[in-house]
Design a protein that fits this description.
This protein is an alpha/beta fold and 156 residues long. The protein is 31% helix and 19% strand. It is built from five helices and eight strands; from the N terminus they run βαβαββαβββαβα. Helix 1 links the parallel strand 1 and strand 2.
Length: 156
């Protein structure tokens, strides 16, 4: 049985910048929880940031907080920890929180703190993909399920 690296907030952990979670409600995700397939990570917390914390957005290669503090190093440390966990647990895929400056897979906030989105990915997702991992946002559960089936059946 292969494991899945997952953003901890999708599992109901209150680790987001605002101290809240964004639990993913999907029957297969619930089954994965019961099967203990999920390897949870909050890259921001793993990188040393507190909960709650000032919100941050990706601006090019940097991660900046709303009040102008550069937290890129904390985000990089979190990405390194996510990579370590993915490798150590031989995960089949990663399921991350869309729009996050760490975990976004298709879109992230544009860096203006205006609520606008732009195509892009978070630092952790970027690191995982560079290392060869398939990374999906929570809105792509059906694709993640299909890939896991292919991996476990030896078709991939």
């Amino acid at each position: 049985m292969r494991k899945i690296l997952v953003s901890a907030c999708l599992c109901g952990r209150r680790c987001r910048y605002d101290g809240k979670s964004k639990p993913l409600e999907h029957p297969v995700f619930e089954r994965w929880k019961e099967e203990r397939r999920l390897v949870e990570i909050c890259p921001e917390v793993a990188g040393g940031l507190p909960v709650p914390r000032t919100d941050a957005q990706r601006i090019g290669d940097r991660i900046m907080t709303r009040d102008g503090r550069d937290v890129t190093e904390e985000y990089r440390k979190g990405a390194e920890e996510a990579l370590r966990l993915a490798y150590e647990n031989r995960v089949a895929l990663c399921l991350m929180k869309e729009k996050s400056p760490s975990c976004g897979t298709k879109v992230i906030y544009d860096g203006t703190f205006s609520g606008e989105l732009t195509p892009g990915e978070g630092l952790t997702t970027e690191s995982l993909r560079k290392a060869g991992y398939d990374v999906f946002g929570e809105d792509r559960m059906d694709e993640a399920v299909k890939l896991l089936e292919e991996v476990e059946e030896g078709r991939r």
